[in-house]
Amino acid sequence: MPSVFFETFGCQMNVADSDLLAHALAARGYYRAETGATADLVVINTCSVRERAEIRAKARIAEYARHKKKNKHNQQLWVVGCMAQRLGKALITEIPGVDRVVGAKDIMTFVSDIDAVLNVSPPARTADAEAAQVSVFVPIMRGCNNFCSYCVVPYVRGEEQSIPAAKVENTVRELIDKGVKEITLLGQNVNSYSDGVCDFAELLGKMHCLAGLERIRFTTSHPKDCTLKLVRTMAGLPKVCNHIHLPVQSGSSRILGLMNRNYTREAYLERIEVIKQEVPGVDITTDAMVGFPSETEDDFQETLSLFESVRFTTASMFAYSKRDGTAAAGMIDDVAVNKKKERLAALINVQTKITKEHYASMVGKELDVLFTERQRGRENLWMGQDNGCKRVLLACDDAIAGTILHVRVNRSSGMTLICERI
Fold this sequence. Notes:
Layout: E1 3-8, H1 12-26, E2 31-32, E3 41-46, H2 51-71, E4 76-81, H3 82-87, H4 90-94, E5 100-103, H5 107-112, H6 114-118, E6 135-139, E7 141-142, H7 153-157, E8 161-162, H8 165-177, E9 182-186, H9 200-208, E10 215-219, H10 228-236, E11 243-245, H11 253-259, H12 265-278, E12 283-290, H13 297-310, E13 315-319, H14 337-360, E14 366-375, E15 378-385, E16 391-395, E17 404-412, E18 417-421
Parallel strand pairs: 1-2, 1-3, 3-4, 4-5, 6-9, 9-10, 11-12, 12-13, 16-18
Antiparallel strand pairs: 7-8, 14-15, 14-17, 15-16, 17-18
Helix pairs in contact: 9-10, 13-14
């Protein structure tokens, strides 16, 4: 049997795309290799959101290409995803040894045509060849219409296209039949979902009615589309987890305007207050960047003060990097690299302190936790999440994947809750 190894960079949508391709390959006899060194096929799923992500992906692709040449390994090397979309076949010229490049816009078509690609006959309908999963990502829309000035996503993934609600329902029913207990609905701007009849809040209601499904998550939300209807739907549906990822990007209204985010600092904070009032105990997470063109020290201090005010549970933080083809690429990147690093370190320090305080506040509390997998290398330690977004670790000799257990938090390691079974 042929083997395949996946290495995925970037967002959850890339993870979902890798899973989609892996499922198609598994149905055609491919098994997952533990490393890429001996696999018959290596698939690198790439990201273009930040320059560093592309640099890392190119380094790994070049490493596999050198391995092929040195060992005369009859291995196929495929590059897929956003960087593949942006660079196209020029990547094959840049890194000889790459056999196939598939852009993010073409993933669905590529998977549909996989038999022609592999030169095999379509598989007979059999039981799923992959191991059952507890929690999976379910894309419900692709692309983005927002055109934030720093972002390449609309260019590499195209305009928004929502998958019909009936098709999403069928997909989730099939997953439930395979043992899935939790889904995360995915979209570059998930709360702008609409199939023409059903909006995102209504889709959540449809998912909530599916028997056998225990928990529903979603990401990523845009603040301008986070409506009161959506927030109240979250609050009224017990299966929908008390967590919303709401990227702010900057605490400065001036910078937000340059970013084309279509909201102000004040509007964002008002939305946060509504969420906290309607969904008590909610975990709010975010994305933020420092060093956007023309960002002053005062602008940065506004970001710091917003973090202190909102007290996000966790955050993804990074320094601005120029992405060719975006509106911001035409701006003067006038914040020095060392200043970007300094501001990023300061923001990370503030958020790390807040995150540790959130986790420490949970000690002694009782939680309902969905456990999904064993900790790698520790057979009796199980990992899971509470009804928000906090990570949980439990020592247990039983097989508890897919089980929701009532536990008590004994201590916090800083960013993981160590619990005991009640």
